[in-house]
Design a protein that fits this description.
Blueprint (H helix, E strand, L loop, with lengths): L1 E6 L2 E12 L3 H9 L2 H11 E13 L2 E7 L5
Antiparallel strand pairs: 1-4, 2-3
Length: about 70
């Protein structure tokens, strides 16, 4: 039987990630005219971080445990 549970905390190290987002054609044209600092700011405003590598050192107790046989609990 599959289960899913929340954890009180997770600690460790985020090793790498990616900034993923989307600009409209107009926003991209504007981005091309900006200085490098403004370009960075625009990308951060339009994107979100996806962690691609991490190491878990410790985790707290689990709670709110859900059980089920299907893919989505």
């Amino acid at each position: 039987m599959k289960f899913e549970a929340d954890l009180e905390y997770v600690s460790g190290y985020l090793r790498s990630g990616r900034l993923i987002g989307e600009l409209t054609d107009e926003e991209y044209k504007e981005w091309l005219t900006l200085d490098p600092k403004q370009q960075q700011e625009m990308l951060w405003d339009a994107g979100g971080v996806v962690v691609t590598d991490y190491r878990i050192e410790d985790a707290g107790d689990c709670y709110d445990i859900k059980w089920g046989d299907n893919e989505v609990l």
